[in-house]
Specification:
The chain has about 475 residues and is mainly beta. The protein is about 5% helix and about 70% strand. It has one helix and 21 strands.
Length: about 475
């Protein structure tokens, strides 16, 4: 009996030692640059609203179309590791197949509606946790895509000697959220699976229906879901074991506890839509809508405070930005005489942020309040006396912002970074009267969204180095 108990004890100790050794499997060194390819399934949803009702549908009609197809492309990125925590930045470019074709519900024997998304680009931050050979992660950031719509009326109907066609393609801006898991099969090869959702926002499509001559204004939105298999090649000597799975993360190199002040500058995109609630001077009927999209530059200042707990860095900040997001288009309702202008020229934000410090790098996400100055200016230059008829209104809109970025510590006090922000300024009522029309009242519901990508430079007061890597 004693021998049996002795053998059982030896086996138990051996099993425990083996299990502990298995639990101490090395974590791969994921630090470095990677490049790879991806392929898989994509599902898209494209919808458009006819704001004018000039040729293709009644005003306010919305057409929605869904499609499934193939997606494939490439990605390049950089990873930075602290213990088991792995963060990074990735650029992805994808081509997609497919497209939808549907008969018009109004003239099904004559008119067809086609939609397509053929290109997607994303710039995302990612954060994961390494378990031996496995690296699950989440990611999010900017997404853009090429969206096309083509409406066709058959020849010989409604004055179309040849087919009447409205054909337009635009690059749409939005955001993406997703995640995946990578599996390390060798020193330099990682295989994985990834899911991505992309919201490409709502954009204005303005143009003329060929061979009919009608001016059109559509609001076009798109969403994409993609599931892909991925293969990445990791450059450099990344096959070594750098820590056990249970090892604590190394202390961060920089002390980020500080007040900061800085400047930013970059590119912005704005989408403004309004609905005429009364059917005043500048539209045909109450409920008519209009949408415009414009690109421009933005720049401003920011001020904030950061607080650090080990690798986690939180903070609060305020920013003020001037921008030149302005559009001026011929009215689709009265094209010979009227012009419609929209503008966003000022943004202010108050945001909270949370990030994770990797040596000199600090990726973060942020969100909070956003407000902006939104203007609508409609002008009729032909039908008024003694001067042009004008409805000109400006109002401060309230909304929210979500985004993120990556800061790089150049010196103890200087930080350079890249930031992406999505701003929804919500809906607000713009009301008043049109001049030189004997007091025609106007009442508009106006909404605005802004996307901005900016470079930032911050000066950290009392920034110090408290441990060497």
């Amino acid at each position: 009996m004693n021998k049996i108990l002795l053998h059982a004890a030896v086996l138990a100790v051996s099993f425990a030692a083996s299990a502990h050794a298995s639990d101490e499997r090395p974590v791969w060194d994921w630090n470095g640059v990677y490049m790879g390819a991806h392929a898989g399934w994509v599902g898209s949803d494209v919808r458009w609203t006819d704001n004018t009702g000039n040729w293709w549908a009644p005003p306010g009609f919305t057409h929605s179309a869904s499609d499934n197809g193939f997606i494939g492309g490439g990605q390049v990125g950089i990873l930075r590791q602290q213990g088991n925590i792995v963060g990074g930045l990735e650029l992805s470019v994808s081509g997609a197949s497919g497209g939808t074709r549907a008969a018009s519900p109004f003239f099904p024997a004559i008119d067809t509606y086609k939609t397509e998304i053929d290109t997607l680009v994303s710039v995302t931050g990612r954060l994961g946790y390494a378990f031996g050979d496995w690296l699950p992660y989440v990611q999010g950031g900017y997404a853009g895509g090429m969206v096309s719509m083509r409406n066709t009326s058959g020849a010989g109907f409604f004055g179309c000697a040849v087919p009447c066609v409205y054909d337009s393609s635009q690059w749409q801006h939005g955001f993406t959220l997703g995640g995946g898991v990578d599996y390390r099969i060798s020193d330099n090869i990682a295989l994985g699976v990834n899911y991505r959702y992309a919201n490409l926002g709502n954009h204005a499509y303005i143009g003329v229906t060929g061979n009919a001559g009608t001016l059109e204004n559509f609001k076009v939105g798109a969403d994409v879901h993609a599931v892909t298999a991925r293969a990445n090649w990791l450059f450099g000597d990344q096959g070594s074991s750098i820590a056990s799975r249970d090892a604590p993360a190394a202390a961060p190199a920089w002390d980020w506890n500080a007040i900061y002040l800085g400047v930013h500058g970059g590119l912005g995109h704005g989408d403004i839509d309004w609905t005429d609630n009364l059917g005043g001077w500048f539209t045909n009927f109450a409920g008519n809508s209009y949408m415009s999209s414009g690109d421009g530059v933005t720049g401003g200042v920011q001020l904030g405070m950061l607080t650090q707990w080990d690798h986690v860095v939180g903070g609060i900040g305020v920013s003020l930005s001037a921008m030149s997001l302005e559009t001026r288009e011929t009215s689709p309702f009265f094209p010979p005489s009227d012009t419609l202008e929209t503008k966003v020229d000022l943004l202010a934000t108050v945001t909270a942020r949370i990030g994770y410090a990797f040596g000199s790098l600090l990726p973060y996400v942020e969100g909070g309040y956003a407000g902006g100055n939104v203007s609508v200016t409609n002008t009729d230059r032909l039908n008024c006396f003694p001067a042009a008829c004008l409805f000109d209104t400006t109002k401060w809109h309230h909304g929210f912002t979500l985004g993120g970025g990556l800061d790089y510590r150049v010196t103890e006090n200087l930080v350079l970074g890249l930031n992406y922000s999505y701003v929804s300024l919500g809906d607000a009522t713009h009301s008043g009267t049109t001049t030189n029309t004997f007091g025609v009242p106007e009442d508009y519901t106006v909404g605005a969204d802004v996307h901005a990508v900016t470079l930032r430079a911050n000066w950290l007061f009392d920034g110090t180095l408290f441990s060497a890597e």
